[in-house]
Amino acid sequence: MGEIRDFKSGRQERPPGDPTPRRLAAIVAGDIAGYSRLMQVDEEGTHNRVKRIERDLIEPTIVEHHGRLVKTTGDGFIAMFDSPVEAVRCSIVIQQNLVGRNAAVPKDYWIEYRIGVNLGDVIIEPDDIYGDGVNVASRLEGIAEPGQVFISGGIYEQIKHKLVCGYESLGDRKVKNITDPVRVYRVLPDASAFHRTRRRRENILIFLLSITLLIIAGGILWSMLIPRSEKVADRTPAPVSSPSPAASPKAAEPAPAQKQATAPAASPTAQPQPQPSASPAVTAITPPPPAREPEMVSLQGGSFSMGSNDDPSERPIRRVTIKPFSIGKYPVTVGEWNACAAANVCGFTATGNDEAPITNVSWSDAKQYVTWLADVTKKPYRLPSEAEWEFAARGGTQAKYWWGDQMQLGMASCKDCGDSAAAEQPIKVGNFKANPFGLHDMGGGVDQWVEDCWHKNYQGAPTDGSAWLGGDCTSHVLRSGSWKNDSRYVRPANRDNYDTNVRYPTHGLRVALSP
Amino acid sequence: MKVARTLLISAVLSSLANVAQAQDKPAPKDAVLYFVWPQNGTTIKGAFWCRFGLRNMGVTHAGDEYQNSGHHHLLIDVNEPLNPKEPIPSDKSHLHFGAGQTEARIELPPGKHTLQLVLGDAKHYPFNPPVVSEKITIRVR
């Protein structure tokens, strides 16, 4: 390994009596197709562009793949690699990168490399390498079409099961000045195949799109033909897919009154819109949606006993240490979510009160939101780990609920938590008392996604507060329980799970922030 | 203010009514939802693979609005009747298989348990008429 990297200084280390070190290496030879034509068209420009490609693309790519640039000639280069896989990978990267570079200029000015890769025994000199192996690489390059990578049988045997891309056998080829014919393969993710597959993909997409349109049109026609039994006459622009289930008129009524009562006390995320009726207009009109950062509470960290004996999934109870971090004071709201939707990142625009928790999000949706938030704010926003969530929900307590071992009426939003308004979908976040850490709705309200993959209990779980990944990651952990669950689900130790990519009307999220 | 409040309430109500309205997905009359395994009265030792059978309808992902297709829900020891106007609940006794699973590894404490399958539409609502299996009773040793 070290030998190849330092072959320029290798002379001193060379044992006496062995003047020419030989070794096996993967050799990459590349040259520009139609170099003289390019030089004729624009000598200085071509020279500058070739030098730039060498400096910006070829040299760094070779280094990235643990290779060594042996030499550059006017229109080409020779590099050597320890690993055939890396050699071919490097060649593919260079070719695909050039496709992108060429896309911006007229075809006459395209700089296209032909690349050959061979595995062979070489003699290493300070500034060059020699041997059959090098010659075969150059010959392969010579027969390659512009933008393509040709590899020899030796390379193919080494990489065929390791590098996932197509190989097309071109049979045995007789090459100039080499006695035995060389088996040649073409590596398929080249420039033209790239274009070809893209065109095919476009066709498939168009086909699928037209089918979808047909289905939609058919669906509309069908629904128009089927008579509805009841119709709501005075419907204001109604959401197509509101996540909310049916609510009785009785339950929705107290909501606005309650909002007015709690608005001064809560003063949370929505300072710009104290008037709830005015709020939808604010986000709808401003064209570039500003990222609404959720209000965060920073926590010191510490260690706590995670889990409980109330459910097999919460065992065994173990000591977990949490590093300092911040967590959202409330679950992410509809208003906060819609900023992400307006930026065309989040998959759907939610309807409803701006201050209501966002619902009907899958774990993947939740990840998309935090990734977007981190992106626009340049802060490391993320989903909390399951341990962080429970630490935050317990608020320094070890009881069944953060307020004690007994369920108390009016402390959370759940099916049998007592408050009649809480029995339906949460109208806004922060309706209930904060826990000792100052966090609202940590239990009841909406289910909240965390980073961890689902494991049926804590056997083998990490104790450093990090997210537990791995295992069967087709479902992820949900915390908090929702307004539709009973009081057992409000417990901070309660854990549940759901399919990663499936939306459900009670599922929301809360963000965390690394310090 | 009062007008705004009335407007808000009516907006919320009409949207909610719309949801309850929109979910009456029709199911073919001959759709049959059943347990491939276990069968009624089976005694099982430890965890088992529960396999769901569906005839004359298709299984798809939750969220996919295809005609005559839905996804499975397994109800364990549930006695409350199903509310056709609400999404099938999600909790430890209402297991969802929205990724289109047709079997699941189930682990239950020893004793008698009831199992029932319910097919849900794209938004987890039961069909109309509901596509449900027979409620079977098994014993776990």
Key features of this structure:
heterodimer; A: 515 residues; alpha+beta; Alpha-Beta Plaits; eight-stranded mixed sheet; four-stranded antiparallel sheet; 18 strands; disordered N terminus; B: 141 residues; Immunoglobulin-like; 1 helix; 15% helix
Task: Please give a structural write-up.
The complex is a heterodimer of chains A (515) and B (141). Chain A has 14 helices and 18 strands. Chain A has 515 residues and is α+β, with helices and mostly antiparallel strands. In chain A, strands 1, 2, 3, 4, 5, 6, 7 and 8 form an 8-stranded mixed beta sheet that branches. A 4-stranded antiparallel beta sheet of chain A has the order 9-12-18-13. In chain A, strands 16-15-14-17 form a 4-stranded mixed beta sheet. In chain A, helix 3 (35-41) crosses helix 4 (43-64) and helix 4 (43-64) packs antiparallel against helix 5 (84-102). Mean pLDDT of chain A is 81; it is low at 1-15, 190-195 and 229-287. Chain B has 141 residues and is α+β, with helices and mostly antiparallel strands. Chain B has one domain (25-140): Immunoglobulins (Immunoglobulin-like). Chain B contains 1 helix and 9 strands, in the order H-E-E-E-E-E-E-E-E-E. In chain B, strands 2, 4, 5, 6, 8 and 9 form a 6-stranded mixed beta sheet that branches. In chain B, strands 1-3-7 form a 3-stranded antiparallel beta sheet, with no helix packed on it. Chain B is globular, with a radius of gyration of 18 Å. Residues 6-22 of chain B have low confidence and may be disordered. The chains are: A alpha+beta (515), B alpha+beta (141). Chains A and B meet through strand 16 of A and helix 1 of B.
How much helicity do the residues of chain A have? 25-40%
**Shape by Cα distribution of chain A:** elongated
Supply the number of helical segments of chain A. 14
Order of helices and strands of chain B: HEEEEEEEEE
CATH topology of chain B: Immunoglobulin-like
What is the count of helical runs of chain B? 1
Q: For the CA atoms, what is the radius of gyration of chain B?
A: 18 Å
Biggest interchain interface, per-side counts: A-B, 42 and 35 residues
User: Any idea what the CATH architecture of chain B is?
Assistant: Sandwich
Total strand count of chain B, please? Answer: 9
Instruction: Please give the domain count of chain A.
Output: 2
CATH superfamily of the largest domain in chain A: paralog of FGE (formylglycine-generating enzyme)
CATH superfamily of chain B: Immunoglobulins
Show unreliable segments of chain B: 6-22
Number of strands of chain A: 18
Euclidean distance between termini CA atoms of chain A: 40 Å
The multimeric state of the shown protein is heterodimer
